[in-house]
Amino acid sequence: MGHILPQHVVFIPDGNRRWATREGLPALEGHRQGMNRGTELLHRAVELGIPYASFWGMSIDNFTKRSKIEVAGLITIFQKLFEDYLDDEDLIKKQVRVRVLGRWAEKFPESAVNVIKALEEKTKHHTAFNFTLLLAYNGTDEMLSAISAIAKEAVAAGEAQTVTPQILKSHLLTKDLPPVDLVIRSGGDPHLSNGFMMWDTSDAELYFTDKYWPELDAQEFDKALAWYASRERRMGK
């Protein structure tokens, strides 16, 4: 593309249901189209040479604030996605590692959990590209869990522990991921939610688009990347 690319880009997909309503379709069709869009953007990121691409798939709140029918349908769509990825020779050829972070092992049915574990196992030695999907994930939950774990370790050791940035990072779900350079959120609602990746996005550039997630195509992605390249990153200076 001829300009500076982020090393780690994160997508916050918003607007699946609003897109479906506008198109006169059921909500699950919006989620299905959104899933297809995510796959397209992942392949675009790999094509461009962006080593880390992360997507927020489901929050923990989705399990309590949406209907059980919609949640079950969404999980089924995710399971189908993972089954497709298991047979995706392109992921293997291009050495894409897949990670799924969050409380999915607690919230998802066994069939979906097994597919996720199989996909992570199959791709765990890939090093060229990294695809991370956050499922049953809230940033506030991640941070509280990390702090609780550090506190328990201090109690077990019987002494106070100095909490450094490195120690905190090592207790996060995202411990193996680099800082986020660019967050792209669709849906026309310019905000972050639930403390999303609060530690990792501390110096990230934030790009908001009015397009609903099923409409956020490779052209809009390229537009966001050009915007990112035009920014003077001060990194708190």
Describe this structure in words.
- By secondary structure, the chain is an alpha/beta fold.
- The protein has one domain: Decaprenyl diphosphate synthase-like (Undecaprenyl pyrophosphate synthetase, 3-Layer(aba) Sandwich), CATH 3.40.1180.
- 48% of the residues lie in helices and 13% in strands.
- Helix 1 (16-22) crosses helix 2.
- It is globular and about 60 Å long.
Condensed summary:
By secondary structure, this protein is of the alpha/beta class. It has helices at 16-22, 27-48, 62-65, 68-86, 89-93, 104-107, 110-123, 139-157, 165-170, 218-230, and strands spanning 8-12, 52-56, 96-101, 129-134, 182-185, 205-208.
* Separation of the first and last Cα atoms: 28 Å
How many domain modules? 1
Instruction: Give the strand order, joined by hyphens, for the main sheet.
Output: 3-4-2-1-5-6
CATH homologous superfamily designation: Decaprenyl diphosphate synthase-like
Q: Percent of residues in helical segments?
A: 40-55%
**CATH architecture grouping:** 3-Layer(aba) Sandwich
Largest sheet: 6 strands, parallel
Percentage of residues in DSSP E strands = 5-15%
Number of helices: 10
Cα radius of gyration in angstroms: 18 Å
Total beta strands: 6
Overall SS class: alpha/beta
Extract low-pLDDT stretches: none
